[in-house]
Specification:
Chain lengths: ~290, ~250
């Protein structure tokens, strides 16, 4: 019974195994990025970036239909362009990063939807907006795994300046020039992971497996390395649970995965030991001084 | 005595408006100098120039050995520290070893000892695994001093390091400053507590957008000088003409 519910789908169907592998790769790549987005108060920026990818992917689609390489390259290009432009505008002018991103991504989203509806069918539009993790072919899976690997390796290079830029930017500036390059590299990683999520979960939910697990982690850990581990683990668990849910019900896979993440998130908000609601309402007697 | 820092007709400011101008003088190696002046006198601006965060509008700063901008340990006045960031005291202080570790260098047993010793020196032994957000104001300042200890710089610049901390913390940290002085390090500190300056700092630079007096503390801290410093204007003149002293110099 339990076996047929939880394991059989993956044992019997290759597309489920692929989907699971894809989700694990997404979690490994995106989890840490999500934690940094949250700590830099850029959670919504991730969402904005996800929209910014759309016109690039859409142009790829316009040129060569539902084609992996074209859409990936297009998405990366558009994402990088917007991230760099917004980052530069924020660093060079007085406009803060959020405001400058909002300007860029609104334009991109409008352009993207226009392009897709110019040529595509509704199915295509659905694919672009919500992805399809159950239809990952070998090539897509390779791209996702590759991007996740690049993301993790790059993050290890910029980890220290990134942490320092969050916690004490002035000090980082006084000891090193790594701040600005690390910041730009980080934006690039956000884009890479969003393009990854885009293939599996679509434009609208791509950011879900990055941001929600980070939010979950905040309720369970007080230091950043543990938060990253928890974010990745909860993304993997939610991905697996979402796939199982989707297999046994008629819920589409992308939303199912995000819904499972949301379930864990709500549980964490309520019962998490670090600032969870229950803990706040019943803190227990205070300790001796 | 050799010069650690030399100001040559240095003018620093923002948007062409000078905050400090026509600063000339030499800071000797191993000097312990208090920088005194009213708010807006340009103390922080001068420090930003010294640590290379602000390029001079005119003039220059000559730098002796181990006084390159990045070799100077700098404690800014309003640290932009995100105290909600999930990092523990040990890790935070460990960032003082940046020059030794860089992006990848590990924190070995020796570095670990150094960090524990630095924490001990500021009286924070036992706080290693506390999140920085749980520290009080005074403990926070002690932690920042521990990081300065680890930076092991020959020149240390402190911008109002003893503001809003209690007497005990202040006394402990002043003692640390004396220790640095004893080790031959050059220390500059912006201060408002004139008593503290008289008791602990042999030299004083009295600043009010330009040098009012600079030298041995008792000679600088006269009522006349302090009064003169107080009268210097703080505000930018939006319609200021180009400074004539530039042509004269």
């Amino acid at each position: 019974m339990l076996y047929s519910m939880l394991i059989a789908p993956f044992a019997e169907f290759e597309f489920m195994r692929r989907a699971l592998a894809g989700v694990v790769a997404l979690a490994l790549g995106g989890g840490p990025i999500g934690v940094f987005l949250m700590l830099r108060r850029m959670s919504l920026m991730g969402d904005a970036m996800a929209h910014a990818i759309l016109p690039g992917a859409a142009i790829g689609f316009l040129i060569s239909g539902v084609n992996l390489m074209a859409m990936t390259v297009g998405g990366l290009t558009a994402g990088f362009a917007v991230a760099l432009a917004a980052g530069l505008v924020a660093r060079v002018t007085e406009l803060k990063e959020d405001a400058s991103l909002a300007a860029f991504y609104l334009v991109s989203l409008a352009v993207g939807v226009t392009i897709v509806s110019l040529r595509g069918s509704n199915i295509d539009l659905l694919h672009v907006l919500f992805g399809n993790v159950l239809a990952l072919d070998d090539a897509t899976l390779m791209v996702i795994a590759f991007n996740a690997t690049v993301s993790l390796v790059t993050l290890s290079f910029i980890y220290r300046p990134l942490v320092l830029e969050c916690v004490d930017p002035l000090f980082l500036r006084s000891v090193s020039r790594a701040g600005a390059p690390a910041h730009l590299a980080f934006l690039a990683l956000v884009v890479i992971n969003l393009v990854n999520g885009f293939h599996a979960l679509g434009t609208l939910l791509a950011v879900g497996l990055m941001i929600l697990p980070a939010g979950i982690a905040r309720f369970w850990a007080r230091d950043i390395s543990r938060m990253i581990a928890i974010a990745v683990a909860s993304a993997i668990v939610a991905g697996y649970a979402g796939l199982v849910l989707s297999f046994h019900s008629r819920v589409p896979s992308g939303p199912a995965i995000i819904l499972m993440t949301a379930v864990i998130y709500v549980g964490s908000v309520l019962f998490g030991p670090v600032g969870g609601l229950v803990r706040k309402m019943f803190p227990g007697r205070h300790l001796e001084a | 005595m050799t010069a650690q820092l030399q100001f040559r007709n240095l003018t620093l400011g923002y948007d062409r408006h000078p905050a400090v101008h026509h600063l000339s003088g030499v800071i000797e190696q191993g000097a312990l100098i208090a920088v005194v002046g009213p708010n807006g006198a340009g103390k922080s601006t001068m420090f930003r120039g010294i640590v290379g965060m602000l390029a001079p509008l005119s003039g220059s700063i000559g730098r002796g050995a181990s006084a390159a901008a990045r070799d100077i340990a700098y404690l800014p006045q309003t640290a932009e520290i995100d105290r909600s960031f999930p990092i523990c005291v040990f890790d935070f202080v460990a960032t003082g070893l940046w020059r030794r570790t860089g992006l990848f260098g590990g924190i070995g047993a020796r570095a670990r000892d150094d960090i524990m010793r630095a924490l001990g020196a500021v009286g924070l032994t036992g706080f290693e695994s506390r999140a920085i957000g749980t520290l009080s104001g005074g403990q926070m300042q002690r932690m920042l001093f521990a990081r300065l200890v680890l930076q092991d710089a020959r020149v240390i610049v402190l911008d109002e390091p003893f503001n809003a901390i209690d007497a005990k913390t202040c006394a402990d940290l002043v003692e640390l400053v004396h220790r640095w002085h004893g080790e031959g390090r050059t220390v500059l500190a912006a201060l408002h507590d004139l008593d503290l300056v008289r008791r602990h700092f042999p030299q004083t630079l009295l600043l009010a957008r330009q040098v009012v007096a600079w030298g041995a503390t008792p000679e600088v801290m006269t009522p006349e000088n302090l009064m003169a410093a107080r009268h210097m204007s703080e505000a930018f003149d939006d319609h200021a003409a180009a400074c004539a002293a530039d042509e004269a110099a």
